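User: Show me an example of a complex going from sequences to structure tokens.

Assistant: Sure. Here are the input components:
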Amino acid sequence: AQKVTQAQTEISVVEKEDVTLDCVYETRDTTYYLFWYKQPPSGELVFLIRRNSFDEQNEISGRYSWNFQKSTSSFNFTITASQVVDSAVYFCALSEVWGRDDKIIFGKGTRLHILP
Amino acid sequence: DTGVSQNPRHKITKRGQNVTFRCDPISEHNRLYWYRQTLGQGPEFLTYFQNEAQLEKSRLLSDRFSAERPKGSFSTLEIQRTEQGDSAMYLCASSRRDRTFLERDTEAFFGQGTRLTVV
């Protein structure tokens, strides 16, 4: 069965600090997708990134970067030079690609507070 | 395309009443998901469809919950004999999954949700 664990329930940092959100996953499938979504106070889930398990290259998009480590089943998300607008709940999610159980499941989320 | 649309945005109902929510996915998406989210929790999987076929229904769901996706387009989620514990945000998402060409797969796009309050 699939499982996504986000051990950090809440993080607070001062603006301009770097912050890393942890995500650990479990799956029996060898091919899967990993996702990060942002849920700002407005409530709508906003897609940030999708990573294929067969592509271990890390990705950077502006102040956001993602570190995919297959060996440790982790897909961590780092925000560099954080801003107040980054305050939100962030969800990591997992979906098998070829398996019969290919629904998307989510972790419980990490609430991030960026303090001015 | 205007994205995933959910109606109504808010619903207040008395305990014991039936409610129905509607989701209109992005037009070219073959996958449609329903999730439930309560305060401080992540989206909890309820059910999902590939075109008109319902692939799985969460074991956490009681028989009071039913979902349909006739003709593989919009979907409805019905809750019969609502209980106070059903109060939550109900989220719909759609995506495209193509097991032949993975490059065509998309992420799931979410609607704004329907907030249900059972009084």
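The lines above are the inputs; the final block is the predicted structure for all two components together. The mean pLDDT of chain A is 92.
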